[in-house]
Hints:
By secondary structure, the chain is mainly beta. The protein has 3 helices and 20 strands. It has helices spanning 2-20, 35-40, 237-243; strands spanning 65-69, 73-76, 83-87, 90-91, 94-95, 98-104, 107-111, 120-124, 130-134, 137-142, 147-152, 155-161, 164-165, 174-177, 182-183, 192-199, 212-216, 227-229, 233-234, 251-254. The radius of gyration is 23 Å and the shape is globular. The protein starts with a helix and ends with a strand. Residues 1-18 have low confidence and may be disordered.
Amino acid sequence: MLRSLLLAAVSALAVTSCAAAPDPPPRPTPAAVDVQSFETLPEATTFAKIDALPRDDGTSPTAGQVLRPDKAVPVYDRPDGKAVARLPGTQLGSPTWVPEIARQDGWSQVLLPSRPNRSSGWVFTGSGDFERAENDFLVTVDLAAFRLEVSEKGKPLSAWTVGTGKPEYPTPTGRTYLLASIKETVTTFSPHILPLGAHSESHETFGGGPGTVALHGWPDASPFGTATSDGCIRVPDDALDLLLTLPLGTVVIVK
Length: 255
């Protein structure tokens, strides 16, 4: 009799538990953006200023995930929010790779290269329009120490003394990333330029461009260990050689 009662109780509990299991909450999906509205959205590039984008206040390395859109995609101010920009498939002639800083129900928050500095936005990755990759590299720049370090999976690879922005044209701090790789054909101070997803806070424009901050070389060692640039980070030749091997989207933390 006791055995029968116990079995009945267990069966009743199992039925009750199954019946009480809540349905999973619906996944937030993007608000529809018609073709005409999509084309009028500002492009999230280094040339744009988009005040509606959320800011990234992070100062730590990310989890190492980077995303590349197969085509231009909408950028939202939050997972279930409004489309405020569009992220193109290329940036400055390079494929668009952006670091993921948060993930939520098929959405990813990514760093963006537009003004204001530390701009970010949400993209819907559940559509299949993205390639995802692991990036284990990190570049850290300590402005006070004039030191740039490259690490992989938390292990330092190498470090150098570098040059930074003048007090009146300081190198912007925060979490940014390697935006593109450009072979220089106009000037001779560096064979390659590595633009970052950050801008000078003192120059609205510079050299005819949007004031994008970059990592680049220099013909001699005179700027290393000094704050003499207009905001860019000047690096030795061997540092530039290594930086050129890092994948686009590599996080750069300037502090």
